[in-house]
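3.2 Worked example (two chains)
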Amino acid sequence: MPSQLIPFLLFVIVLTLVPGPDTALGLRNSLRGGSSAMWWTGLGCCSGLLVHAVASVVGLSAVFAASARLYTAIKIAGACYLVWLGATTLWKSWRHRGEVPEVEVRAPAGRIGRGTAFRQGLVSNLLNPKIILLFLTLLPQFIAPDEPRAETSAVFTLVFLVVAVVYWRLASWLVGGLRTLLTRRRIRLLLERVTGGVMVALGLRVAVEGT
């Protein structure tokens, strides 16, 4: 067992709980597809983490991080994707603002299915350049000089994924528990506009960071 497993676990838990683009996307999708959409968004994000982890092990992440052009291209693509998702959320909430009476919303317009939620979570995570740097800079700090690098990295990656899956499972259950509240039109539209605005802001922040 890695000597720094417990410190790494605590760090990953704190890191996972800090809201970011993935969380904003999960909340946005939960408003259109309920707890199931949030869960499948999370599974897509976790799959993206797995891809980044494998790429880090085989050295692809180092290539992307070392190339300013590739890194910038990924950053801009990710920023555009977040802005697009946030903007479409704002547009749909505005377009459907008067279509449903002030009662429960049982079938929100533009409902998101599992496949769409998973794909959006996967793409959002894959296009996040910070995840690339995370696996390149975070894992080595917790690997002792006398520990096998590949095996220890695999253990840390598994821990990272387990924490992420547990987080998304608990978050989706919480959304399910608040379903009655979230299905009220005014609250849902407000939350859609907030999450849409947050995603646009995050996308713009990603685009200008480091420029």
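3.2.1 Second chain
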Amino acid sequence: MDVQVFVDLQNQFDSESSLREEISTATKELFKTCRLTSAKLSKAHAVPKSQSKQVTDSVKEQFATIHTNIEAIAKHVRPVTFYRYHDMWSMAVQNACALVIFAVYLEESRLATAADIQGYLGYRVNATNEDVTEFVITLEEYLHGIVSLFNELSRLAVNSVIVNDVQRPQEISQFASELYAGFQLLNLKNDSLRRRFDSIKYDIKKIEEVQYDLRVRGLIA
């Protein structure tokens, strides 16, 4: 019997193991950069709206590094094997999308589009779910980032009051309500995304409670 068959199989196993290790290393770097960026963006919770742009300006360098980190993952992935290894980096890319979406809201008080995601991260959102011909950010990763924004908005509504910016919670409430209404139009099939969407109502409730307390105390009309 020719044992070369098994030698070739072992070489394939070794090659795949090496590839997974390289992707894992690059993904860890992406997680690390995302944590640093999140820490810097969190300063927005401690300042009024007028100073938000200063916070977003301070993380531009981190977003450039995130782009480089994703690039380091992408170079190891061929389109034909994209979904084979996708679970290895998906959570990290979700975090990156969430950071972009929060940064865009802080700077422009709007929802980040797929074009914004590409502008910040360097890779397009596969919004039509066509066959993958290059490394892309999936539609689910983008939507997970939007869900994360609700949590940031509920925190921001509370913390805005702490820094005496009592008008901002009203803006946040209107934006969150419109965004939630839009999200309800989606017929979500993804289990993890559906579960996270169901938790949005608690963030909306927290924002509404801030609004209620401000009105009861006569701080807003």
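3.3 Remarks
The longest strand covers residues 125-126.
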